[in-house]
Amino acid sequence: MADYKKSSVHCHSTMCDGKNTLQEMASAACAQGLTTLGFTGHSYTQRDREYCMSPSRTAQYKATIAKLKTEYKGKVDILCGIEWDLLSEDKRTGYDYWIGSAHHLYGKNTGKYYEIDFRPQDLHDCIYDDFDGDPLAAVEAYFAEVEKVAAMGPDILAHIDLIKKLNAAGEFFDEESPRYKAAALKALNAAKEHGCLLEVNTGGVYRGYRKDFYPGAWLLGEWQKMGGKVTRRPLAGGLAFAASHPRPRRPRPRTLERIGCAPHPHITRRLRT
Questions:
Q1: Rounded CA gap, 185 and 181, in Å?
Q2: 258: Cβ–Cβ under 8 A, 6 or more apart, which residues?
Q3: What is the secondary structure of 155-221 as a DSSP string?
Q4: Cα angle at 125 between 119 and 129, to 5 degrees?
Q5: pLDDT attached to residue 126
Q6: Partners of 113 in the β-ladder
Q7: pTM of the model
């Protein structure tokens, strides 16, 4: 059974918006003693092709991972996953597992799709041009998107509160607001109802956007009360799987174990059945 501390199952490569090739990452994982490496390229999204894999790249992605599985058999368990959200046009089948996520909001006034975790100006325009200057209305719409993804039963629900990425100093909204917390808890309840593993994602900390993880400590605490299971994304799609980086005080590895950090083979439907 795989040790989650020696596994990484949310990884992006140069096939989408990562920094290293699939081959480089597999080699580094093996050298650093990882037991499981799961690739999860961003699935094709026609409305926002800036960060995702094209259909032709998706085919190349699958073929390359198939070769890596053979090359590293007995050394590292290589998995072919996909990160899929509501705008994705690729099918969720044909992968070892899939990660569900939400990255965009639709603007009812302008008809635009806004990527909420990339450019601060985009988030600003989303709030003021399409949510009538009410940032918490945008927050509620984001968590409603997360609910929809959770209802599809992904193997992992990624960065559930990604909407807060660009809000470290409270520039856009109050994360302690009752409206914020009610919307987040509604999404969390959907994740529990549909049996999702909740990802503890350290990417915002590693990149310097936040001092806390996704999900935040209070939301993770609520998940613990529900008896939910978590999986961890140590770093964000580069070679330094085991590199040191700034960490907030919580959640520590012991906290993850107390909540129930699932061994990685159990994230795949292939190995659940």
A1: 6
A2: 224
A3: SEE--TTGGGTT-TTSSS--TTSHHHHHHHHHHHHHHHHTTPEEEEE-HHHHTTS-SSPBSPHHHHH
A4: 160
A5: 97
A6: 106
A7: 0.85
- 98 three-state secondary structure: strand
Taking each helix axis from N to C end, the angle separating 55-71 and 22-31, rounded to the nearest 10 degrees, works out to 30
Beta bridge partners of 157: 100, 198
Distance of CA 235 to the CA centre of its chain: 11
Joined together, the tokens standing for residue 177 give 């607001």
Above 60 in pLDDT, residue 15? Answer: yes
Residue range 33-70, pLDDT digits in tens = 999 999 999 999 887 777 789 999 999 999 999 999 99
pLDDT confidence of residue 7: 86
Q: What is the DSSP letter of 149?
A: H
Is residue 61 within 8 A of residue 39, CB to CB? The reply is: yes
pLDDT digits (tens, 9 = 90+) for 78-99: 999 999 988 898 889 899 999 9
Contact 83, 40 (CB under 8 A): yes
